[in-house]
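ARCHIVE CARD
CATEGORY: sequence design from structure
SOURCE FIELD: tokenized fold
FIELD CONTENT:
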């Protein structure tokens, strides 16, 4: 059952340094846990459509998207439905949604192309722990968390284009705009699980189970925020998890953030994965890659 996974196990030195703050380790996951993970994936596959199977025995790509900034639109709560917003409100092609505030995603993408700015990821997120609207955002304003700025911005409908130039550090972003878009510092670490249900049922089915385990386990500090994120690629390797870990200088000032990407994470894997991160270890079997970004 585990032949392909076990072939990843080699006699190489089990500790290498793929990323500044962590050591990547091999062969430290109990085989019984790997079996449980694969059995869970096989159980899901029995219920998933024939063209939407998890490929748990395929090699996990080791290359995350290349980006320098991640713009995350906060999804407002849907008070008119018992279904979560990530399941009901996120269209398959969310950037083509013309309803507010999701219409901002397509506009920002178009404006970024106009100012020839690459390396910016754009997603919607739904807060599952923390990341909630402390009070209702004014009508006609959208709320964005921007990484690595680690700042929460509230943007008016009329400000989308200049906000995009501000994000891209474009020449069209005036000193006045830079002063205007001050935002509010966001000081917590953040775990995001892909759960874009209407885009791909695999992520949509596994995401709430992963969130449940992340809430439950003692290996995740209660001060770490949890959220579900729209499409970040790798549906067939669900569950896909993105961990933003902030770092501070000796005097407490924010210096940067690590973006750690993981795939093939099942609920059974959460505790071992997160215990490893807490101890400064990355388990290679679930690792998709990392992006390190400095404060700007």
């Amino acid at each position: 059952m585990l032949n392909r996974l076990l072939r990843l196990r080699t006699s190489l030195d089990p500790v290498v340094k793929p990323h500044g703050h962590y050591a990547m380790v091999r062969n430290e996951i109990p085989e019984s846990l790997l079996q449980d993970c694969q059995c869970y994936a096989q159980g899901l596959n029995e219920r998933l459509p024939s063209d939407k199977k998890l490929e748990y025995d395929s090699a996990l790509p080791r290359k995350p998207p290349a980006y320098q900034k991640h713009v995350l639109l906060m999804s407002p709560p849907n008070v008119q439905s018992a279904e979560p917003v990530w399941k009901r409100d996120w269209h398959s092609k969310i950037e083509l949604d013309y309803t507010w505030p999701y219409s901002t995603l397509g506009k920002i993408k178009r404006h970024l192309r106009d100012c020839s700015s690459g390396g910016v990821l754009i997603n919607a997120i739904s807060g599952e722990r923390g990341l909630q609207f402390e009070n209702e955002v004014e009508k006609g304003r959208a709320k964005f968390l921007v990484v690595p700025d680690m700042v929460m911005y509230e943007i008016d409908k009329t400000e989308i284009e200049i906000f995009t130039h501000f994000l891209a550090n474009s020449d069209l972003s005036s000193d006045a705009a830079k002063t205007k878009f001050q935002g509010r510092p966001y000081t917590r670490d953040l775990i995001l699980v892909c759960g874009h249900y209407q885009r791909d049922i695999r992520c949509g089915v596994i995401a709430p189970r992963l969130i449940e385990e992340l809430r439950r386990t003692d290996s995740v500090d209660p001060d770490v925020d949890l959220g579900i994120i729209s499409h970040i690629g790798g549906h067939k390797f669900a569950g896909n998890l993105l961990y933003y870990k902030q770092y501070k200088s000796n005097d407490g000032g924010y210096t940067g953030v690590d973006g750690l990407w993981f795939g093939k994470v099942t609920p059974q894997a959460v505790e071992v994965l997160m215990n490893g991160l807490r101890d400064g270890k990355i388990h290679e079997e679930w690792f998709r890659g990392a992006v390190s970004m400095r404060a700007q």
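CARD ANNOTATION: The longest helix spans residues 31-47. Helices lie at 3-7, 31-47, 85-88, 103-114, 160-167, 175-180, 201-216, 270-278.
SHELF: design records, drawer C
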